[in-house]
Amino acid sequence: MDRTVREARDRGYTETLFGRRRNIPELASTNYRIRQAGERQAMNAGIQGLAADIFKVALVKVDRSLEQAGVASRLVLQVHDEVILEVPPDEREQVQELVLDGMHGAADLRVPLAVNVSWGETWCDAKG
What we know:
alpha+beta, DNA polymerase, domain 1, Alpha-Beta Plaits, 2 domains, two-stranded antiparallel sheet, 52% helix, 13% strand, elongated
C-alpha cells in the first residue's frame, strides 16, 4: 500500500492492470486531510478500478455472446457487481452457460473470478 501511494504521488495518478488511469490531484494538496483522502483513494483505486474494468469487459463479452447465439435474452441492467438479464424460460440453460463463460473469461488472473447465477420472475425473487 505504501508503494502504491508513493507511485501515485510521483506520477499524480494510479493505473489499473488494464492501463486505465485515475488522476489523484489530492495527493499534492498542502492540506493534510485532503492529502490523506488522496492516499486512501490511491490505495483503493487499483483494486476497485480493476474490478470495474473486468466487469465492463465481461458485460461486452456477454452481450456479444447473446447476440451471436441469436437468443431473445438481453442484458437489462447493471447494479454494482450484478448484471440483470431478461431470459425466456426455454433459454435459461443456454444463457447461463453464455453468461458464466463471458464473466469467467473477462480477465486472466491468478485467482478465479467467482460468478453466481440465480433466477426469478423479479429481481427480488432472484436475490431470494
